[in-house]
Amino acid sequence: MKPESDKMSISSEVLAAYLDGNATARETEQVISALSDDRDLRELMAISMAVDASPSFPMAAMAASCQDDNLCCLECEKFILQQRDIPFNDQQMLLSAIDHNWLKDEGTPLHNMGRHLEEAGLAVVRKYNANLNDIVKFLVQGASLMAAVDGGELDPQKVLEEKIEDLIVGTIPDHAVVVVSLDLQNNSIQIFNPDSASLLQTIPLERFIDAWEDSGNYLVAAAAPGQMEYEPAPLDLQGIELDASLDELREAIAENAHEVWAFNRKKEGWSYGPRRDDVLKQTPDMVPYSQLPDSEKEYDRQMAINTIKLLKKLGYEIIKK
What would the pLDDT profile of 14-64 be if each residue is shown by its tens digit? Predict the structure, then answer.
């Protein structure tokens, strides 16, 4: 046990970043080390996790941390390209990830998983809140799948101390794996795990599900264009409540969206007309926002309000200066 003076040495900023899934690899290591020695910090962590429960998805969380130079997301993309007989260059992929800022100092954010597959010409679908049915559907269609997981939960032996397992495991996605096959009859799943000594690893399905849940069940599917059936799946935003003070922001976004639309249409040669005419490039919507019918205003407002809700869902805060 550390001396009393050394307790609670983790700053509130680092602790908040850890709880939000935005801590760097070094900060995560510091928190885990402190948790193992500091009972007060463990209690504070437990209270914070209970009180700060949030419906947000950790879009900016690191699906592949750079700790120990483990670029697991990159390795998963290489595995998929190799399985599909698509040539690649290791060094070029790494440089491309750095140049495009897909790979950050802390690792690869969830929303950047699969970028190299896009560069290789594959159609890529990203989905939060996916489920086993989605995995089955994509595999049947011949898609390659990457999942963001909590790497510690794939191998419980990596947990530093059993007494704090619930605090340091099951909180953040920090690893990427490729889902190769699913055996529902035997409740197992086969994955390519860059951390595993063997090329392919078969683990209990329950263990995978526990690890996968920590990324909001984030799944990336990649296939040849036209190979997958595309089903739009926007995030469910119904549970996101907004303060009434954001009404002004909603209206400002809606009006500006109309201005952007009209500006681009005018550059394309469109003008006002009493009815839409694609040949003459005329539309009754080429008027100021204030003159739009309520039905058109409502369309822009819904777009605006959903944009604001999406920001909250993905863990962002809107602060007015």
Answer: 766 666 556 666 776 677 667 666 666 666 655 554 444 444 455 545 555
Q: Where are the beta strands (DSSP E) in 169-290?
A: 175-183, 188-192, 201-204, 219-223, 271-272, 282-283
Q: Is 21 helix (H, G, I), strand (E, B) or coil?
A: coil
Euclidean distance between CA atoms 73 and 62, whole angstroms = 10
C-alpha span between 236 and 238 (Å, rounded): 6
Beta-strand runs (E) in 161-315: 175-183, 188-192, 201-204, 219-223, 271-272, 282-283
pLDDT, greater one: 59 or 85 = 85
Same domain, 69 and 122: yes
Long-range contacts of 46-53 (CB under 8 A, 24+ apart): 46/167, 48/15, 48/19, 49/19, 49/167, 49/171, 52/19
Q: Among 24-28, 76-80, 231-235, where is mean pLDDT lowest?
A: 24-28
Residue that wins the pLDDT comparison between 162 and 279? 279
Structural domain count, the chain = 3
Position 113 in a domain: yes
